[in-house]
Amino acid sequence: MNESANDGATPLLELRSVTRTHGDGATAVHALRGVDLKVGSGELVAVMGPSGSGKSTLLNLAGGLDTPTAGEVLVGGTSFDGLSRTAVAALRRRALGYVFQDLNLVPSLTAVENVALPLELDGARVSVARSAAVAALEETGTEHLASRFPDELSGGQQQRVAIARALVGPRTVLLADEPTGALDSETGESVMHLLRRRVDDGAAGLVVTHEARHAAWADRVVFLRDGIVVDATGPGPGLGALLDLAGGDSR
Ligand SMILES: Nc1ncnc2c1ncn2[C@@H]1O[C@H](COP(=O)(O)OP(=O)(O)OP(=O)(O)O)[C@@H](O)[C@H]1O
């Protein structure tokens, strides 16, 4: 199944016949089987599906954190295939923003230092990285927490700082795994709003969510079952109808 609302333009994120198998023989687990997906500039795609259907695997492959058994993943038209580990790491730092369930804030760095870190690792001057970090903290409403260390922040505050780190700088592909997990529902909505705004400004977004009302922020929803795309909505009334079927509230 091939999904794109931007036919013609190079998608910012593309999965071509991506398969990921763990183990082999009788005990092999087929986490993802022949998935095709294109996400263009200005598109926010939600991924839904039951536990074990392959959602996290899809996101990890899209982010270059895992390697397909077959098929390939391209970011901005560049395939991870054949790139050195250093080149993959550089591409990930420059183009990709991740919001994962695991917050991974560095405990010995303040909030603003954590957010500035990816830019500094990429060679940005400290002053430039810091001002971009402050802007990203402002976007998530956490600029007043800039000088706090992670253990001085609540779970929700840590999550918002982690989101600021994912959004800092000119990221073109935003990947989010249940970005609202540790947040109250009001903040969760504002996070989706934030992702939506970045995508409207030209990024491509891929969000794994269990909540239909969060998926309702997306342009398309891709449903996975047993590692296969079993359904996909387009923009328009079809989205609301399918989300109603999925059992949640619509926006
Ligand atoms: N490292 C691994 N080794 C073996 N099997 C794995 C591994 N990682 C994932 N799997 C299996 O691959 C399948 C897909 O897992 P995945 O975590 O992608 O699903 P998911 O849809 O994200 O689930 P959840 O909603 O529970 O997070 C599952 O059957 C899982 O047990």
UniProtKB/TrEMBL annotation:
Keywords (A to Z) from UniProt: ATP-binding, Nucleotide-binding, Transport
Positions of the ABC transporter domain: 13-251
Pfam families listed in its UniProt record: ABC_tran
InterPro entries tied to this protein: AAA+_ATPase (IPR003593), ABC_transporter-like_ATP-bd (IPR003439), ABC_transporter-like_CS (IPR017871), ABC_transpr_LolD-like (IPR015854), MacB-like_ATP-bd (IPR017911), P-loop_NTPase (IPR027417)
Coiled-coil ranges per UniProt: none
GO molecular function, one term: ATP binding
A single cellular component GO annotation: plasma membrane
Superkingdom of the source species: Bacteria
Protein name: Putative ABC transport system ATP-binding protein
Source organism (scientific name): Mumia flava
